[in-house]
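Researcher: Structure prediction, please.
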Amino acid sequence: MTYRVCFVCTGNICRSPIAESVFRARVESAGLDGLVEVDSAGTGDWHEGEQADPRAQSVLEEHGYALDHTARRFESSWFARLVLVVALDSGHLKALRRLAPTEKDAAKVRLLRSYDPAAVGDLDVPDPYYGGRDGFEECLEMVEEASAGLLASVREDVEGQVA
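Model: Predicted structure follows.
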């Protein structure tokens, strides 16, 4: 069974594509790319069909990450095929849990920074869209820091499925 992870932010052009790109690279470097599928979506349809924000794209490229992305809106029906839905902030977490058809599906939704043991207090990844490039750098840094813990959790789940 493929372990499917979907990262979700508001418009699916900044935070969630950054998280998708970083985590996909981590999955590939861990040798799990045949077992784990990674994608992203937005809670709304504001940017559906658009490419990632150019600032997100350039920050990713400068740090060695690849991204081929078209924004889309998260659909409630996707819960059936997803193992984990990773929200980038608490607003997304609440929206996704409301959208979940069952309590079991709502339990699939987690905050990204909950996987970063050094993160305390506010676990939101701030939205860089209305700010400058430094916000995209900060977003990438937070995503990278949380991705190690997320990868460890996913690896444990995947290895549990194989055993």
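Model: The longest strand covers residues 3-9.
Researcher: Thanks, that helps.
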